[in-house]
Design brief:
The structure is a single chain. The protein is mainly α and 347 residues long. It folds into 3 domains: 46 residues; 80 residues; 118 residues, Intergrase catalytic core (hpI Integrase, Chain A, Orthogonal Bundle). 48% of the residues lie in helices and 7% in strands. It has a 3-stranded antiparallel β-sheet, covered by helices on one side. A two-stranded antiparallel sheet has the order 4-5. α4 packs antiparallel against α5 and α11 runs antiparallel to α12. The protein is elongated. The N and C termini lie far apart (90 Å).
Length: 347
């Protein structure tokens, strides 16, 4: 039986499908499926040549993760209207990995970091997934730019999110929370009220511009969350929402951002709502309530008030009516109709 050249082998004896094995310039054993014996010889020669040149396939030596993060930040800021949250997450990762050589970062290192941060900061599955997405964004970009070959984020499963959450404010809780905001962070009251009365996501409030009201007595919501849907949707404007909008807009020109990432000139910062909103929730004595639950409150109140589910789905900007159906049990008419239907059977 003919002996195979060193570095070439059959993973399954007799298959005539050949693999190569070599050690790259970083001392790591690498393997690659090639197919035919001649292709294996050519590929192995190429890999050894790359090793001698000090250029392992797809890697740039001495490339710091800082450089990859810089590319990711530039891309996000250029392509996303509300980039602040993603940039914050990328810079949070930078603090721990910025000075690490990019090719040295492994999947286990990323997993250990995500798990450690989730424990230390009591992250929800959704928060952990968002940071995982930030990691993936970096490596997907650098692979596209051919700066490195491997994506250590590939194959990391996302945590299952509790998308059925429907925590909403009672009238008493809203009064207590409003009082806490007025006491400690009065400049943010208008932002709180606008979110509560429009159901807008935080990212949508960051995209809001002066001039988005009035539009036939409605607010224009600039949405990017759901693919395939229009770039805007319209929601009814309550008197509370109108007053909040007018306080935020002031005398600034049309087209200016309604809410930005800074607090300069009295324009509220929405980027890190937990630094002002969460303390107010705690001061109000409210348990298990987050900023996004203002959106749940909006939907829940509409349904409990008898607004049809399809209309609520449209106002919320849901990708499908199934997402809105989780609020359907709150509709009083449904309860009454179900009871009446069942009892009519006995008449």
């Amino acid at each position: 039986m003919r002996e195979l050249p060193r570095g070439i082998y059959e993973k399954r004896k007799g298959s005539k499908i050949y693999w190569i094995r070599w050690t790259d310039e970083y001392g790591r054993e690498r393997r690659q499926k090639c197919g035919t014996l001649s292709a294996s010889r050519d590929r192995l020669a190429l890999r050894m040549s790359e090793k001698l040149r000090g250029v392992s396939e797809g890697f740039q030596k001495n490339l710091l993760f800082d450089d990859l993060l810089d590319d990711a930040v530039k891309y996000v800021e250029a392509t996303h209207a509300s980039s602040e949250d993603m940039v914050y997450k990328l810079n949070r990762i930078r603090r721990d990995f910025g000075k690490t050589l990019a090719h040295k970062i492994t999947q286990s290192m990323i997993l250990d970091w995500l798990d450690g941060e989730a424990r230390a900061r009591a992250w929800t599955p959704a928060s952990r997934n968002r940071y995982q997405a930030a990691w993936s964004r970096v490596f997907s970009l650098v692979r596209a730019n051919k700066k490195i070959k491997d994506n250590p984020c590939f194959g990391i499963p996302k945590k299952r999110e509790d998308n059925a959450r429907e925590r909403y404010l009672s009238k008493e809780e809203e009064e207590a929370l409003t009082a806490a905001i007025v006491k400690s962070y009065p400049a943010y009251l208008a932002v709180f009220q606008l979110a509560l009365h429009t159901g807008a996501r935080a990212s949508e409030l960051l995209r809001a511009e002066i001039g988005d009201y009035p539009v036939n007595g409605q607010f224009r919501i600039r949405q990017e969350k759901v693919r395939g849907q229009p770039g805007v949707r319209f929601v009814p404007a309550t008197p509370v929402a109108i007053a909040a909008y007018q306080r935020l807009a002031g005398e600034r020109p049309t087209g200016s951002k309604l809410c930005t990432k800074t607090v300069k000139r009295g324009v509220p910062n929405l980027t890190q709502v937990r630094y002002w909103f969460d303390p107010c929730v705690k001061a109000a004595g409210i348990v298990d309530f987050k900023w996004h639950d203002l959106r749940h409150t909006y939907a829940s109140r509409l349904v409990m008030g008898g607004v049809p589910i399809p209309a609520v789905s449209k106002f919320m900007g849901h990708s499908s009516i199934e997402m809105t159906m989780r609020y359907s049990h709150l509709a009083p008419a449904n309860h009454e109709q179900a009871i009446k239907t069942m009892m009519d059977y006995y008449q």
